[in-house]
Amino acid sequence: SGEGESEYFTRMKELLTTYTKLFVVSVDNVGSSQLQSTRRGLRGKAEILMGKNTMMRKCIKEYVEENPGTSVEGLVDCCRGNVGFVFTNGDLGEIREVLESNVRPAPAKVGSLAPSQVIVPKGPTGCDPGQTAFFQTLQIATKITRGQIEMVNDTPLIAEGERVTASQAALLQKLGIEPFTYGLVLKSVYDNGSLFDAKVLDITDDVLAAKFSQALSMLASLSLALNIPTQASVPHSIANAFKAILSITIGLDNYSFDKADVYREYLADPSKFASAGGGGGGGDAGPAEEAAPEEEEEEEADMGGGVDMFGGGDDGDGGY
Q: What is the 3-state secondary structure (H, E, C) of 249-274?
C-alpha cells in the first residue's frame, strides 16, 4: 500500500542518515526464524533492513536527491538479487562475526546450487543390502558388512556450484547428512562513503605487515640491481660497502681502522676468542680453529664484489 511504502521510505532514509556503515548481505535460503535470531544477536549493535529491490533503489535515489553530495548513490547497484542491508556505527569486524556465526545446517534440495563441495565419508551407511543398486547408480563402490552396505572410499558427491540431482539428494537424505549451511552472506561493505568487497575485511594487521615486508625486500633487491640508492637499499649498500672495505683492509699491512681491528685480532689469534666464549676446546681443536679464519677471509673477499654497485670495477677505479 502507499502508506506502507511511505513508512518504509521514512525508515530507510532515517537509517541512511543515522548510520555511516553498512553491510550488503545475501539472504538466500535464510528463513524468517533464522533472520529473527540474527536480529536478536545484533540488538544494540546494528539494524537489519530488508525489502524489495525496486523499493530500496527508489528510496536511495530519493535520498540522494534530497541530500546532494551524499555518497550512498553507489548502493543502488547493490540492490540485485535477494539482498538486505545491515546498518551499524560499530566495529565492522564485530558485526561480521555475529553475522557469520548465525548459520544453520540444511539438507540438499533438488535443483539447488551447491554452495560448497559435498564429500560423503566412507563407512557403514545403515542401508540394507537390497539398496545396493541405488549406490551403483551413483557409481559409489560398496561392500556388504554385517548385513548392511558399507562405502569403501570417501566419495565426492557434489561439486561446488553444481545443481543437486534427485539421486544425490535422496542419498544424502538416506544417510541423514545435511551438507550445507546457510546464513547471511556478506557481499559488500559501505564505510563512510567507500564501497568495497567484503573480502577486504580478511586483511589483518599481520597480513599487511607481511605484504609490506615482502614489497620492501623486493624494492631493496631492485634498487641494488639497478644501482639506484633508495631508503630500502641504503642499509644493504652500507653493509656491503663495509664488507668490501674490511676485506681490502685485512689484506693491507700498513693500514687499519677501529672496526677492522677486532677482525685482525681474530685472524691473528682465533684461540683467544674461543677461550672467551667458554668453549674450552682441547689442543686437537687447534688446526680446525686455524682453518676457520681462512674460510672467513675468503668469504669476505668474495663479498667485496659489492663495491661494483658504487661504480667501482676490478681495477679499483671506483667513482665514489
A: HHCCCCCCCHHHHHHHHHHHCHHHHH
Local structure of residue 147 (DSSP, 8 states):
T
Q: For the ranges 50-54, 199-203, 253-257, 313-317, which has the lowest average pLDDT?
A: 313-317
Coil, strand or helix at 154: coil
Nearest to 171 by CA among 214, 202, 126, 211: 126
Question: CB under 8 Å to 184, separation ≥6 — which residues?
Answer: 25, 26, 27, 30, 35, 38, 84, 86, 99, 100, 102
How far apart, in Å, are the Cα atoms of 20 and each of 122, 193, 303?
A: 50, 8, 57
Q: What percent of the chain has pLDDT over 90?
A: 14
Tally the C-alpha atoms within 13 A of residue 115's C-alpha that lie toward its C-beta: 16
38 neighbors 44 (Cβ within 8 angstroms): no
DSSP 39-98: HHHTTTTEEEE---HHHHHHHHHHHHHHSTT-SGGGGGGG--SSEEEEEESS-HHHHHHH
Residue-wise pLDDT tens digits, 130-186: 888 888 888 888 888 888 888 888 888 888 888 888 888 888 888 888 888 888 888
Q: pLDDT tens for residues 183-236?
A: 888 899 998 888 888 888 777 788 888 888 999 899 989 988 988 888 888 898
Q: Which three cell numbers stand for residue 104?
A: 544453520
Going by their DSSP bridges, the two strands 155-158 and 118-120 should be labelled as antiparallel
Helix pair 258-268, 286-303: axis angle to 10 deg: 140
pLDDT, one tens digit per residue, over 23-71 is: 999 888 788 888 888 888 888 899 999 989 999 999 999 999 998 888 8
Burial classification of residue 203, based on how many CB atoms lie within 10 Å of its CB (0-12 exposed, 13-18 middle, 19 or more buried): exposed
For residue 282, give Cα distances in angstroms to 102, 286, 287.
Answer: 69, 8, 11
Cell of 185: 552472506
Residue type, 246: L
Amino acid of residue 319: G
C-alpha cell at 261: 681491528
